[in-house]
Amino acid sequence: MSTAAGPQAHPAVDTSPLRARRRNRALLQAACVAISLFMLVPVYLISLAALSARDSLNQFPLSLLPDHLSVDTLAGFLGSTGIFPALGNSLLVGIGTLVLSGVIGVPAGYALARYTFPGKDPYQLFLLFTRALPIVVLSVPLAQLFLTVRIYDTTYAVILLHTALALPTTILISASVFLGIPADVEEAARVFGCTAPSAFLRIVMPMALPGLAAASIFTFVMSWNEVLGASILTLDRRTLPAQVLSSLADSPLAYRFAGGFALVIPSILFIALMRRYLTNMWGSTIR
User: Fold this and answer.
1) Most buried one in 100, 163, 181, 211, CB count within 10 A?
2) SS in 3 state form for 222-260?
3) 3-class DSSP state of 13
4) Cβ–Cβ < 8 Å for 111, 146
5) 157: Cβ–Cβ under 8 A, 6 or more apart, which residues?
6) Rounded to 5°, angle at Cα 125 from 144 and 106
7) How far, in Å, CA of 242 to CA of 64, rounded?
8) What is the pLDDT of residues 97-146, one digit of tens each?
9) What distance in Å separates the CA atoms of residue 45 and residue 257, rounded to the nearest whole number?
10) How many CA atoms lie within 13 A of 244 on its CB side?
């Protein structure tokens, strides 16, 4: 006598790891959205106030949607005396700081990543000491020094100060980037006939460009937004933040919003440009 075998019972599948993974992903996305809103809301409010008619700023309650757009306030700010020269000075200082910190910081970061020498760890710690000092501690002695060597009230003085502020981060970021590139790649290039400088320029630098671009974002934005040192070291050739600080102290509220808008937009454009470059270099690793 034969009996038909019933369906075999399958063990229950534990879906708790999948649910935990989905929950963690949802929490991560919510945190990213919250951080983005935290940074974007002030930029939106400044932009809305700068591009609104002056009468709308005195309304209560203020509208959070653009209903009275006008560029009169922004045009009046940009037409003020000294704004466009200050904008040119800021661009010159930012680009000069970017180039000088790269020329000095990238080789120093490469040396930290590839070579071992006495005092290497204390040297890396010493690099951070310049960022621990208040900016006024550096600016006042530098003002006296620049007066002596006759470069006070020039963009060169501000470039030197901003380079001193940006170098520690540039060197440490560059060192971490070069540490992520295997030394075997350079050795293989030298085996196939490249000299040491040629292997660095043709093999290592293209692989390090995304990380160096990230360091350049920090350097340019720091130089663009720095105001105290530029105010101390210049009188007639001030950067845009220093010019805004000195000229808008007693200005109407609308012009202050226009000044903030003029300061924010160039930084956002530079970051957007470099972000696109980083995405093209790293592909889908940046989402």
Assistant:
1) 163
2) HHHHCCHHHHHHCCCCCCHHHHHHHHCCCCCHHHHHHHH
3) coil
4) no
5) 142, 146, 151, 233, 234
6) 80
7) 30
8) 999 998 998 888 888 888 887 877 787 778 777 777 777 777 788 888 88
9) 9
10) 24
What is the full DSSP assignment across 153-170? TSHHHHHHHHHHHHHHHH
CA-based torsion, 262, 268, 269, 274: positive or negative: positive
| Sequence-ordered list of residues with C-beta below 8 angstroms from that of 108, at least 6 positions apart, any chain | 167, 171, 174, 175
**105's tokens:** 């910081």
Tokens for 266, please give them.
């160039």
Fill in the DSSP letter of residue 34.
H
Cβ contact 92:84 at 8 Å: no
Nearest Cα neighbor of 73 from 266, 258, 252, 263 is 258
pLDDT band at residue 261, thresholds of 50, 70 and 90? Answer: confident
Confidence of residue 96 (pLDDT cuts 50, 70, 90): very high
Amino acid present at 222: M
The contacts of residue 242 (CB under 8 Å, 6+ apart) are 86, 227, 230, 231, 234
Which tokens belong to 195? 């000299």
Rounded Cα gap, residues 38 and 44, in angstroms: 11
Q: CB under 8 Å to 182, separation ≥6 — which residues?
A: none
Question: Which candidate, 175, 189, 215, 182, places its Cα nearest to that of 197?
Answer: 189
Could you tell me which of 31, 53, 38, 88 has the C-alpha nearest to residue 243?
Answer: 88
Residue 245 tokens read as: 């600080």
Query: Which phi and psi angles does 69 have, rounded to 5°?
Result: -70, 140
Q: DSSP letters of 198-215?
A: HHIIIIIHHHHHHHHHHH
